[in-house]
Amino acid sequence: MDELAERYLGKALSAWGLDVEYVRAEGDLMYPVGDDGRQRAVTDFVGGFGSLFFGHNHPELVAHARSLLDAGTPSHAQLSKRTEAQRVASALNGIARRELDAGEPYEVVFANSGAEAVEAAMKHAELARVFRLGALAGELAEHARAARAQVQSGDAELSSAAAELAGHDADIDAVLEEAGRRNAEALSRAPEFFALEGGFHGKLVGSLQLTHNPTFRLPFQALGASARFVPADQPEDALKYVEAEQPYVLDIVAENGVVEVRRLAVPIVAGFVVEPIQGEGGINELTAQQAERITEVCRAMGCPLIVDEIQTGAGRTGSFFASARIGLTGDYYTLAKSIGGGLAKTSMLLVRQSSYVKEFELLHSSTYAKDSFSCAVTEKVLEMLERDDGAAYRQAAERGTRLRSALEEVRTEFGDVVRRVRGRGLLLGFEFADQSASGSAVIRNYARSGFFGFAVSGFLLRKYGLRLMPTGSAPNTLRIQPSYAIDDAAIARLAAGLQDICAVLRHQDALQLVHPLTAVDGPAPRDHVRDFRSTALPGPDAEPAAARVAFVAELGTPAALRRFDPSLADLDDTTLRAFVARSAPVRAMAPLPPVQCRTADGTTVDVTVLPLLVDEAVGDSAGTLAADVAGQIGAAHAGGHTTVVVSPALRRLTGTDAPTTGVRGPNGFELPPGFGVDADPGLLPTELAEALRS
Question: What is the pLDDT of residue 657?
Fold first, then answer.
């Protein structure tokens, strides 16, 4: 069967040992089928990216969902009375009154996913701003009519400022015409949103603009709303921007027989969006002081504070609203993920009643939102959370404390490898120290290429049966989000797995990391971690080089890999070739540290190798080698290299003759003995020398 559903991502998963298909799930366990046909239990710490507070397929929720389906509960009854939705809204308001000390109710708008809830919040906030602009425009028009009438009746005359607006000796009509032109321009100013650096709010066209990570956002920046990002500890930067960019309208007012010109600020900020704990950004928690300052900034700008509780809400941090613990009270809230119990794809936008625009209900709709099935499941989730005076919240807090304690013990033991443990309740982050200077070339490459967290996740999955993932915008941080019922045995296994990978990283022994990722049957050739920390990293001399040369070369034969990273020496050819084959979808490796060489006439040249994991014996099963070669050439040029050379083997494999480009080097160029990663120690120096002499 041809794989056409995100097949490139599926292939990339194989490079990290994550290409596992799960056939069953319950609680904190998921079950893939092994090559022997047996199901193997895997402990899930990903938790549906925060959607599984009650775990996979909680029996009570499953039984409730079945009863709803058996009863023929309608999913499609648009434009009708929805009692289940009203009960959900009422229950949410009861929780808001208790935790947020809300003095007024919140209107509830239903959606299908977290990103859609954020989109709804953006639309509602802009609609509210448009209504404010409309009211302002109406006020300007009324004042203008009154001023014209008084001037024409002789009851008022233009002030000097009003006359100068349209030029000397201007009349009231000219003044109003010029003011109207300027006002139309100011009132048509596009809205601005503010969000925090490191924040993540979805990947739809609108919500993506509030997501800070430029990798996700920039390709689509032209499609969406304008958003500005400020640091969590400097929210006042938003005020500085508004002060510098603030547009004004001219209000022509007749008072006491004189027509004056007043400047009125135009509301341009539609909303300020924050997460109480940033999930994708690396599990960064707002402080109470930061929350207070953000609230004050929103008041000063006259815009709503939109609190994104999609990942943090519904019990995950030990309370329903994570924001309640830091005194952050929003005008809007977005909820999703665990609010659907892991079964219903649903989300909600809560809007403070005094901020609510009733016309929004006619301008915004969704086919599947507010369906009776999803609302009834959500109602059951809220009932389970609130049961026994909030026992579920207390259990989440207790389990979170136990889990964090275990993670902190690992951090204490491996302080040179683990930077910190962050988060609250069952939303925790385990951050590794940067490994981009590791003595292991393999570990160093994973860190520099941005795949470090995925490689670690694959190791923990294959060796320990632990399912984890890095955060999207902080690849060195593992996000840990189990259910409220995670047991001590699972926590102990997680701690053991983390201790193991920390030992691997401390000693820079890539064999222990690579072997599980290859999926080769059988144990590793050695079960103990060896110390490779003495491996010296090559680096350029202090003297500036006259030229920078890049060499795009294949790296894939077992012999070359063993020279590339000595810690792989004990792996047999079969395992190393499996490593290369599985890495094909992400074969482009980070550049090696540059080596400085001298030509015969004493000129210094920096040489940087950009390797590709390619083994001719394995073949180019992914069919993307030519694109990967082009990508490495582009990376070399972007890195400022004046000359790029592609190895003969890569030119042959791709069926092209990629020429040397850029400025030629001087004659007599030679590399130091033994330099290079190719199987033939003489190939790399010869190829470079010939290219530079040509």
Answer: 57
Residue pLDDT, tens place only, 39-71: 999 999 999 999 999 999 999 999 999 999 999
Output Rg (C-alpha) for the chain, integer angstroms.
Answer: 31
User: How far apart, in whole angstroms, are the C-alpha atoms of residue 577 and residue 562?
Assistant: 12
Do β-strands 604-613 and 547-555 pair in parallel, antiparallel, or remain unpaired? parallel
- Catalogue the E-assigned strands of 63-142: 106-111
**Coil, strand or helix at 680:** coil
Side chain identity, residue 617:
A
What's 647's DSSP letter? -
Q: Which strand (E) or helix (H) includes residue 114?
A: helix 114-152
What's the pLDDT tens digit per position in 385-441? Answer: 999 999 999 999 999 999 999 999 999 999 999 999 999 999 999 999 999 989 898
The single-letter DSSP state of residue 264 is E
Cα dihedral 290, 296, 297, 300, rounded to 10, equals -170
The DSSP letter of residue 556 is -
Distance of CA 133 to the CA centre of its chain: 34
What digits encode the pLDDT tens for the residues 240-278? 999 999 999 999 999 999 999 999 999 999 999 999 999
SS (H, E, C) 500-527: HHHHHHHHCCHHHHHHHHCCCCCCCCCC
What end-to-end distance do the CA atoms of the chain give, in Å?
Answer: 49
Output the six-digit token pair for 414: 């491996």
- pLDDT, tens only, 429-487: 999 999 998 989 899 999 998 999 999 999 999 999 999 999 988 999 999 999 999 99
Is 497's pLDDT higher than 70?
A: yes
CA–CA distance, 149 with 402 (Å, rounded to integer): 75
Whole-angstrom Cα distance, residue 6 to residue 593?
34
For the beta carbon of residue 621, count every other beta carbon within 10 angstroms. 11
Q: Are 253 and 151 in contact (CB under 8 A)?
A: no
Copy the structure tokens of residue 103: 């003095």
Locate all alpha helices (DSSP H) within 414-451, ordered by sequence.
441-449
pTM: 0.89
Residue 412 bridge partners (DSSP): none
Pairing of strands 269-274, 192-196: parallel
Non-local (6+) Cβ contacts of 380 within 8 A are: 60, 61, 64, 341
Token pair of 669 as six digits: 């160029």
pLDDT score of 669:
39
Ranges 147-161, 465-479, 551-565: which has the least confidence: 551-565
- DSSP symbol at 660: -
Q: Is 519 exposed, middle or buried (0-12, 13-18, 19+ CB in 10 A)?
A: middle
Note the helical H segments in 170-236. 172-187, 214-217
The one-letter amino acid at 559: A
pLDDT of residue 671: 39
CA–CA distance, 628 with 12 (Å, rounded to integer): 14
Edge to edge, the sheet with strand 258-265 lists 157-158, 258-265, 248-255
Q: Which residues pair with 610 in a beta bridge?
A: 552
pLDDT bucket at 666, cuts 50 / 70 / 90: very low
Residue 358 has pLDDT above 90, yes or no: yes
List the structure tokens of 145: 């009519």
The token pair that represents 625 in the structure block: 């080698």
C-beta of residue 608 within 8 angstroms of C-beta of residue 641: yes
C-beta neighbour count of 141 within 10 angstroms: 13
User: Where would I find the H helices in 414-487?
Assistant: 441-449, 452-464
Q: Which pair of tokens denotes residue 358?
A: 């009733």
Distance from the Cα of residue 119 to its chain's centroid: 17
